[in-house]
Amino acid sequence: MNKNNKDLNLAVLIDADNIPYKNIQGMLDEIAKLGTPTIKRIYGDWTRPGVNGWKAPLLEHAITPIQQYGYTTGKNATDSAMIIDAMDILHSNKVDGFCLVSSDSDFTRLATRLRESGNLVIGIGEKKTPKPFIVACDKFIYIEIIAGAKNKNKKKKTTDKAAPITEKYDRVSEGLINLLKDSVDDIGDDEGWASLAEVGSLLLKKKPDFDPRNYGFPKLTPFIKSLTKDFTIDVRPTEKKNIKHIYIKNK
Q: Closest Cα to residue 51, out of 20, 83, 9?
């Protein structure tokens, strides 16, 4: 796939049964950073009062509701309809990737199948999302982080400084540090220096739910700068004054 992110056509498929409607604006803003949502569909039984909150956001954001009745108790008909639609869209060759918005592990096999076909798969769900679905995606974004960023932007403009450490942020574990160090070793030159951009890309392949915002940082650079005990940072100028390349090395 040789297209830039902004050129990617994405199919956004939302599971109304497992996703809160309050953060739809933040989710769509996040998706817009990754590509163009050319198809936007949401699945649920719209006769149920539990999904009434979705009706206004659907009109506001031009999301097509797909009605799916729950014919049998205990069976999730919404999942089946969403999976069938995804496969139809896949075979139409109209999109470059899919954004599956759900916290349900039932979409694990779907995500795997879409990736096998060469499509980008982005997952969006709550932190309760089972690990198999997360790792089946190319990238997984937590709704709690999207909601936190939206609330923060209401109070002040985004800066490169770390957000205050609160209980809602994950702790940087020793396992994550080791994963970072291994990634630097994997792509480092003979002297051990590795491009931070390449490290970030490799890390995402190893850990699809990695996001500096999970740890209270808006971007990867300030996150790495907070780990001076483990990494040495070298900022290298380029021909363009406003662009610098950042390299890191394990200590």
A: 20
Q: Which single residue is written with the structure tokens 């951009």?
A: 197
Of 128, 111, 149, 121, nearest in space to 25 by CA: 149
Q: Which of 182, 165, 168, 151 is nearest to 223 (CA)?
A: 165
Helix (H) or strand (E) holding 114: helix 108-116
Q: Say whether 99 sits in a helix, a strand or coil.
A: strand
pLDDT in tens, 101-127: 999 899 999 999 999 999 999 999 999
Measured in degrees and rounded to the nearest 5, phi and psi for residue 141 equal -120, 130
CA separation for the pair 214, 232 (Å, rounded)? 22
Identify residue 197 by its one-letter amino acid code: A
Which residues are CB-contacts of 199 (< 8 A; sequence separation ≥ 6)?
A: 180, 183, 184, 187, 248
Q: What's the whole-number mean pLDDT along residues 166-178?
A: 82
The pLDDT of 205-220, averaged and rounded, is 93
Give the Cα separation of 162 and 151 in Å (integer): 15
Mean pLDDT of the chain: 86
Q: Express each pLDDT in 126-162 by its tens digit.
A: 999 999 999 999 999 999 998 765 555 555 444 444 4
Handedness of CA 48, 54, 55, 59 (dihedral sign): negative
pTM: 0.82
Among candidate residues 251, 239, 10, 6, the one with its CA nearest the CA of residue 124: 10
Q: What angle do CA 37, 114, 75 make, to 5 degrees?
A: 95
